[in-house]
Structures are given as C-alpha cells and as structure tokens.
Specification:
Number of helices: 7
Radius of gyration: 20 Å
Helix content: 55-70%
Largest sheet: none
Structural class: mainly alpha
Order of helices and strands: HHHHHHH
Number of strands: 0
Length: about 160
C-alpha cells in the first residue's frame, strides 16, 4: 500500500479538488504535481495532515487512508478513536454493541482460520473488525468515564 497514492486518491475523492488545493495554500496544478511525484515537487507530512483534516471536515469517505497505508507498511494497525461521546448514548447499549462487535470479530477470525491459512483479504477483514471492536470499546470507556466524572462532587471534577 503506497501512502502517496492513498493521498492522491483521497484528494480526488474530495468534492472540489480546486477548493481543496486552495485551502492547502496551493494551486490545483501544484497539488496534482506533488501527489503524482513530479520531479522537484514533494508532498510533505504537514500537507498530508492538512489534506486529511480538510477531507474529514468535508466528510470524504476513508479520509484516513494515507495513515492506514503508513500503518500497514509499518506492520501496524490504525485504530480510530471516537471524536466525541454521542449525546445521551446509553452505556448498556454501548456495551451490547461492543459485545456484538466482539462476536463479529471472532466470527471473521474463525472463518479465516478454518482452512489453516489466512489470505491478505481475510487478514484485512480481521484487522477492520478488530479496529471497530477497539473503537467501540473506547466509546464505552468514554461513556463510563463521563458518568464517573458527572458523579463526582463539583470540586473534584477533572481530578483523577
């Protein structure tokens, strides 16, 4: 998986490439050259971060693709964290959802291991399920931490 190609595809998925480039302080032509490895045009990490941020704010699907590529190249897994706790999300529903995610993860892993081999596609599916499980667990922990914090006397809030 190539990080620069992932960035190129992400930029192309943005609803308006010219506006994206302008928000990055570049012309559309310069951004295109940076993303396609034209000689003397380099795409820097800070530009990648801005690209991701702008694509997230525009709700572009798979906006973390460049980071996912970097993680995969390093033999790691990118796990996204919930940005905020949804308003009024019941903790028991969250726990039930986490249990369901765990079941899906185990099912995917068991199916992949059934023949004693794990293909690249099976591994990717397992990694995806695991990332969703961890994200769900983090959401549950955030919910419980908020409940804990709300139960403290006002003068103790914000203290571990």
């Amino acid at each position: 998986m190539n990080r620069l190609i992932a960035s190129l595809h992400l930029a192309r998925r943005h609803p308006d490439f010219d506006v994206l480039a302008a928000h990055m302080g570049l012309s559309a032509d310069t951004l295109r050259k940076k993303l396609t490895r034209v000689e003397n045009y380099n795409f820097f990490v800070r530009e990648e971060e801005l690209l991701i941020e702008l694509c997230q704010s525009a709700n572009v699907p798979d906006s973390l693709a460049p980071l996912t590529a970097a993680a995969a190249n390093a033999g790691a897994l990118l796990v996204t964290m919930p940005r905020t706790m949804p308003e009024g999300s019941p903790t028991f529903k969250c726990l039930a959802d986490a249990a369901q995610e765990f079941g899906q993860f185990m099912s995917t892993a068991a199916e992949a291991l059934a023949d004693g081999k794990v293909t690249a596609n099976e591994l990717k599916a397992i990694e995806t399920q695991f990332a969703e499980l961890v994200a769900m667990g983090q959401t549950c922990l955030a919910n419980m931490a908020a409940i804990h914090e709300a139960g403290k006397p006002r003068h103790e809030r914000g203290v571990a």
